[in-house]
Amino acid sequence: MILLDSIGSAEHATMVAERIMARLAEPFEMAGHRVFVTASVGIALSATGYADVEDILRDADIAMYHAKKAGRARWVIFDRVMQLAALRRLQMEADLRDALAQSQLVLHYQPIVSLHDDRISGFEALLRWNHPARGMVPPNEFIPVAEEIGLIGQIGAWVLAQACRQLCEWQQRFDIRLEMSVNVSAVQFNGDELAGTVRRVLRDTGVVPSTLKLELTESAVMADAEHALVVLAQLKALGVRVSLDDFGTGYSSLSYLRRLPIDTLKIDRSFVSQLDRLDDKRQIVDVVLTLAHALGLDVVAEGVETDAEQRLLRDMGSDFVQGYFYYKPLTPEATTLALAQQGNMLTTSLSETFG
Ligand code: C2E
Ligand code: MG
Ligand code: MG
Fold it and tell me: Dihedral (C-alpha) 291, 231, 113, 157: value to the nearest 10 degrees?
């Protein structure tokens, strides 16, 4: 921490920051090795008007984290926008801690359609937060926060149990085999409670294990494939299935892909979108389909939005499709309706009822 006394302007502070960074950037010797370090500097200016020492330190700290996030080895001056973002974030953390207890979390269900018989084969459970002031908050906005503050285990367990209860209800009501796909966060996957949670939920809900599919992102699995082998073996021992989500966006090792006990590849939306117009996308999807089928895996193409995309995927031999062309994520009530209307599924468009 450095206190700069009586500086004339912000440039004086950034000049000092540059000098410090340049000095620290010089390599040095440590135990016979040449070592390099870089520094990220956060600057808070007292001209903003501070009453407490703690406040200025906190803001300098926030600015430093912005510097790290922006790629490190740079300085960042704290500003109002950061302050607002920090406050919003604190508020979200506080609200999120209450969300479960106050039943503000809800699941929507996006049907997954089999191209073999054009019927709904199952659903992906997608989490939303029905925030009292902000309305429906999408998962990408709050799941990273839940992961950071250690709430993801609890939230994930709730999602799993809720999705399984819902699946049992639909299976009984419609007397057909349906599958439920549930997203699992990388943090849950790397923690040591996942298998235990799944075992408990299977027992408590009585769901048939083979109708539950856990979606793990390619990046979460491949980040530590040896660890993944262990966890996946535990999950498979429980009889559940596993999908690799967002396939194609990470870096898969082909040798691990062959060894990992997975059942399904979900081709990421970025490859499916405009598939009919872009040759390179079509070739990638073709290769993924060939690879998956050679490995005995089935394929779900995500984010199918147009008829042209759908036709092409069908021609290329995709097993399942999921996307706005068929259904958006639906409320439980709308999902029940969609199941009831199975027959004219392809001409029915039901939209998600967002807050
Ligand atoms: P994901 O698992 O890849 O889910 C697919 C996302 O694509 C969903 O966004 C879905 O609404 C959206 N989508 C589906 N079809 C289309 C389409 O045709 N066009 C477009 N533009 N988008 C489509 P959503 O619901 O916002 O979820 C985003 C991500 O949040 C999910 O990506 C998943 O990674 C995560 N997520 C959702 N629910 C959960 C959960 O319960 N637990 C965890 N850990 N993550 C979750
Ligand atoms: Mg998913
Ligand atoms: Mg995905």
Answer: -160
For the CA of 159, the nearest ligand: 1
- Tell me whether residue 45 is in a domain: yes
Same domain, 74 and 119: no
Same-domain check for residues 74 and 104 = no
Q: What residues make up the domain containing 45?
A: 10-78
Domain match, 97 and 66 both: no
Distance 143 CA to ligand 1 centre (A): 11
Which residue's entry shows tokens 């926030």?
A: 62
Which residues partner with 255 through β-bridges? Answer: none
Which whole number is the average pLDDT over 32-39? 92
Q: Is 34 found in the same domain as 156?
A: no
Neighbours of ion ligand 3 (CB under 5 A): 245-246
Tell how far the Cα of 125 is from the centroid of ligand 2, in angstroms. 8
CA–centroid distance, 36 to ligand 3, in Å, is 38
Please report whether residue 117 resides in a domain.
Answer: yes
For ligand 1, say whether the CB of 323 is within 6 Å of any of its atoms.
yes
Q: Name the DSSP letter for residue 3.
A: P
Over residues 160-219, the pLDDT tens digits come to: 999 999 999 999 999 899 999 999 999 999 999 999 999 999 999 999 999 999 999 999
Domain count, the chain: 2
Distance 87 CA to ligand 1 centre (A): 27
**b/e per residue 306-335 (b: at least 16 CB within 10 A):** beebbebbeebebbbbbbebbbbbbbeebb
Rounded to the nearest 10°, the torsion over CA 198, 201, 205, 209 is 10
221 assigned to some structural domain: yes
CA distance 95 to 104: 10
Whether residue 39 is found in the same domain as residue 108:
no
Q: What is the pTM of this model?
A: 0.85
Do residues 64 and 191 both lie within one domain? no
CATH number at residue 24: 3.30.70.270
| Ligand closest in space to the Cα of 267 | 3
pLDDT at 343: 55
pLDDT band at 355; cut points 50, 70, 90: very low
- pLDDT tens digits for range 214-227: 999 999 999 999 99
Q: For ligand 1, atom 20, which residue shows the shortest CA distance?
A: 303
